[in-house]
Amino acid sequence: MKTVISSIVLISMSLFFSGDDILVDATADQIMAKVEEYKGEKPVLMNFWATWCAPCIEEFPYLMELNEKYEEDFKLIFVSGDFREARDEAEKFLKEQGVDFETYFKVGKDNEFITTISNDWTGALPFTIVYNKQGKVTASWEGKAELETFESELLNVINED
Q1: Helices 28-37 + 110-117 axis angle, to 10
Q2: How far apart are CA 89 and CA 95, in angstroms?
Q3: What pTM did the predictor assign?
Q4: Which pLDDT score, from 0 to 100, does residue 20 have?
Q5: Residue 128 pLDDT more than 70?
Q6: How many separate helices (H) and strands (E) can be counted in the chain?
Q7: Which residue has better confidence, 16 or 153?
Q8: Is the distance from CB of 96 to CB of 60 less than 8 angstroms?
Q9: pLDDT value at residue 21
C-alpha cells in the first residue's frame, strides 16, 4: 500500500514539476531558500530582469556567456520581474536565449518581495546580486553592467579561498 501511495505521489509531482519548466513561480522567500541551497557549495549570481527592460535584455547574453564558461564554478539564478500577463513572453525570451535550466517568475507583493531580497534594492531593473560560497553578498548593483563587470565580480568569488 505504501508503495502504491508513494508511486501516486511521485507521478503527481512529476506532472506538476515538469522538467520542461524553465520559468517557475516563486516568492522572495523561495528564491532566497534556493540561494541558501548553494551555501558552502558554490557562489551564486542572481539577476532580476524583465522583457520590457531594455538594459536587462542587453546584458542577458553576457550572463549566458559566463554561465557557459564557468558553469561548474557558480550557480546562475534568473528571476523575471515581468507582469503576470507577460509571463509567456518571458518564457519565450528565455528559450530564445538558450536557457535550459530552471529560472523563476516573481510572485507576491512588490515591496515585500524587494525588501526580502535586499535592503539595497529600490526595485529598479536590472538588479544583480553576487554571493560568495559562504552565502555572503559580495556585490550588488542596479542597472546594466558590462560583461567585464560581471566576470570580474564572479571571478572574485570563484577564486576566493
Answers
A1: 20
A2: 10
A3: 0.87
A4: 60
A5: yes
A6: 6, 6
A7: 153
A8: no
A9: 84
The dihedral of CA 119, 120, 124, 127: what is its sign? negative
Residue 4, exposed/middle/buried by CB under 10 A (0-12, 13-18, 19+)? exposed
Q: What pLDDT score does 156 carry?
A: 98
Beta strand segments in 1-160, E: 23-26, 44-49, 75-80, 103-106, 127-131, 137-142
Q: For strands 127-131 and 44-49, give the pairing.
A: antiparallel
* CA–CA dist 60, 54 (Å, integer): 10
Locate 54 and state its grid cell. Answer: 531594455
Q: Are 90 and 53 in contact (CB under 8 A)?
A: no
Following DSSP, what letter does each residue of 126-150 receive, concatenated? Answer: SEEEEE-TTS-EEEEEES---HHHH
Cell triple for residue 39?
551555501
DSSP structural state of residue 84: G
Give the residue carrying C-alpha cell 532580476: 48
- Sign of the four-CA dihedral 8, 91, 94, 158: negative
**Residue keyed to cell 541558501:** 36
